[in-house]
Design goal:
alpha/beta, Helix Hairpins, Rossmann fold, six-stranded parallel sheet, 19 helices, 18% strand, elongated
């Protein structure tokens, strides 16, 4: 690869121990904000200087160039950096940049965005200290649970247990339930209330073993029943029109016309010609189908009206019979051809399914997640050349090719009988148009909307009554930032309109402020809740923590936390023990608004307006 001539850049100081973030798209900018909220020194690498002013306001230096080039990496001080985070959407480019960075600094920790999880599983064979994350895999569970269950239903594994969220009024088989939020009728949210919190508006996480979790149904919770499919008010014939004009029913339509003509003609021959009812019906059928005449009517064939009617009936019959045969042939050939190509049409009797509009990386992950929950899924994609169309068909999903904004396509998707609609294209306005057109057909339809712009998402929620909006970068960025700081975010649980609860695993470093600390002192209402402690090297944790538990070096802790609360724990893990304080530090004056989607309060949040596009990961 030929290196372009270096462009003039402002003078800067030499950096050491910093984090390099490659990519200033939606995910990159949010990851930078997550790291800056934890006082991490960050250098960004981007393809142009469009985001330079915005990043400068956040105390971040932008290096313009391709991170695969050694010159660009040197300018970002990769030789003395501690971590490099690659957030671009191209798996090949991310892997190439990782190899280039590791050549300059073999001790560099690498956090790489990869859609292909099979390749990601072998990353540790290439690099001494690396982890591969998929933004779509991290965000998809939030879409899946919203589509199937509504506000709750998130399910994930951590430390040998299955955790599942539910409303406080829902039945449970779990022996341990932990309150993680309180969601008011006006959708106000209180994150991580005290352990003794009670009330009907709580959202809890049940901690279960695998057997108990497997015995639970995957149906929607009783607290959010799904309204039955309804006809559109004021348009009683809309559903009938859709059914009649569909390919599956046109054969029946023309067949009914053929039978009706035969019956009317039989009556005519019975009344006018005087044939018996059976002879009249037989004569009508012979004229319509062109068969030989089984009835002798030579005594009356000289009547001009009769001869004119017989000619008319023969012509109409020939046309209708040809059409019916064409439909039969088309149905047989089309069915065999679709089977040969691996395609499936939408079953006519499908009910209670979820429609996924947009078969990109996140749409494909969401469709797989819904199918894994035992719910039928139908996918619609604009182009037959889409990246994941073949993979979706191979997974047995019916894929409809067309623009989901059109009502004809929505009818083909059996929208009237669907459980929910997930709109996951890469365009905010297209997503909104699909959602509004679907709501026009089914006002009671549950819609889960992917939106990049957080302010626009709030306005959509308030203005159009669409409760569930999701941002991939909002859900995935905390995991990338945590991985850069050597911790693991197991799950990101959306609560209400703009809040999230993070479930993370952290190691207790020897000599840090966490080691030797009383475990119970980590709990702080509204910020951190200690859930479990695992011995060094153990995958199974202790979920019942004694009040006198002391954290030993190299143990792992499982916590539920806000973004800011997790940042404070990570700072404790990175700081040296002083022996003078056994409490989590008081809330610091950092420029991040807890776990809200908006990031620094002192800087205008325009990260979702950046022109860089999200890639497949």
């Amino acid at each position: 690869m030929t290196e372009p001539a270096a462009s003039s850049r402002p003078a800067r100081t030499h950096r050491s121990g910093h984090v390099i973030v490659c990519g200033v798209g939606h995910l990159g900018m949010r990851t930078i904000d997550e790291l800056r909220s934890r006082d991490e020194q960050v250098v960004a690498i981007g393809p142009d200087d469009e985001a330079a002013e915005e990043l400068s306001g956040r105390g971040v230096l932008l290096v313009v160039g391709d991170p695969r080039l050694p010159r660009v990496l040197r300018e970002a001080d990769a030789m003395t950096a501690s971590v490099i985070v690659l957030t671009g959407g191209d798996d090949h480019a991310n892997l190439d940049a990782s190899l280039a960075a590791s050549e300059l600094n073999p001790n560099l920790r690498i956090v790489m965005r990869l859609f292909d999880q099979e390749v990601g599983a072998h990353i540790t064979e290439l690099f001494a200290d690396a982890i591969a994350l998929s933004s779509s895999a991290l965000a998809a569970p939030g879409f899946v649970s919203a589509a199937i269950d509504g506000e709750t239903g998130n399910r994930f594994h951590v430390a040998g247990r299955v955790l599942s969220s539910r409303r406080s009024g829902d039945p449970t088989l779990a022996a341990l339930s932990i309150p993680i939020a309180r969601l008011g009728p006006d959708r106000t949210v209180e994150i991580l209330p005290g352990p003794g919190a009670t009330g009907p508006d709580l959202i809890l996480v049940d901690v279960m073993d695998e057997r108990t979790a497997a015995s639970l149904t995957t149906a929607a919770p009783a607290s959010e029943p799904r309204p039955p499919a309804q006809r559109v008010p004021g348009r009683p014939a809309a559903g009938f029109r859709t059914r009649v004009t569909s390919p599956d029913h046109r054969f029946l339509k023309f067949g009914a016309i053929l039978v009706g003509l035969a019956a009317a003609s039989a009556i005519y021959f019975d009344v006018v010609v005087g044939l018996s009812p059976l002879d009249a019906l037989s004569y009508a059928i012979t004229l319509l189908t062109g068969a030989a005449l089984p009835v002798d009517i030579s005594t009356v064939t000289d009547r001009v009206p009769l001869r004119v009617y017989a000619i008319f009936l023969s012509l109409i019959g020939a046309a209708l019979v040809a059409i019916v045969y064409a439909f039969i042939t088309d149905a047989l050939i089309r069915s065999r051809l679709l089977q040969t190509l691996g395609r499936r049409t939408v079953p006519g009797g499908i009910r209670d399914h979820v429609i996924v509009a947009g078969l990109g990386a996140i749409g494909f992950r969401v469709a797989l997640g819904i199918a894994a929950r035992g719910v039928r899924v139908v996918v619609v994609e604009l182009s037959d050349e889409g990246q994941f169309v073949s993979a979706a068909r191979a997974a047995g999903m019916p894929v409809v090719i067309g623009d989901a904004r059109h009502r004809e396509i929505l009818g083909e998707l059996r929208l009237e009988h669907a459980r929910a609609l997930v709109v996951a294209t890469s365009d905010d306005l297209v997503n909104l148009a699909i959602a509004l057109n679907a709501r026009a057909v089914r006002p009671d339809m549950r819609v889960v909307l992917r939106l990049f712009d957080p302010d626009f998402a709030v306005r959509v929620q308030r203005g159009f009554g669409i409760r569930f909006t999701r941002s991939v970068s909002h859900l995935a960025a905390p995991a990338f930032a945590a991985a850069a700081m050597r911790s693991e975010i197991v799950a990101t649980i959306p609560v209400g309109d703009r809040r999230i609860v993070l479930f993370a695993r952290l190691r207790v470093p020897a000599g840090s402020a966490l080691a030797g600390r009383l475990a119970s002192t980590l709990d702080r209402i509204g910020a951190v809740r200690l859930l479990a402690v695992a011995d060094p090297g153990s995958e199974v944790a202790r979920w019942e923590i004694p009040p006198d538990e002391i954290l030993d070096p190299d143990e792992e802790i499982v916590v539920a936390a806000t973004r800011q609360g997790l940042g404070e724990l990570l700072r404790l893990a990175a700081s040296r023990a002083t022996g003078a304080d056994d409490r989590v530090p008081a809330k610091r004056d950092v420029a991040v608004e807890s776990d809200e989607m908006a990031i620094p309060a002192t800087v205008t949040d325009r990260t979702e307006f950046h022109p860089a596009t999200e890639g497949p990961a």
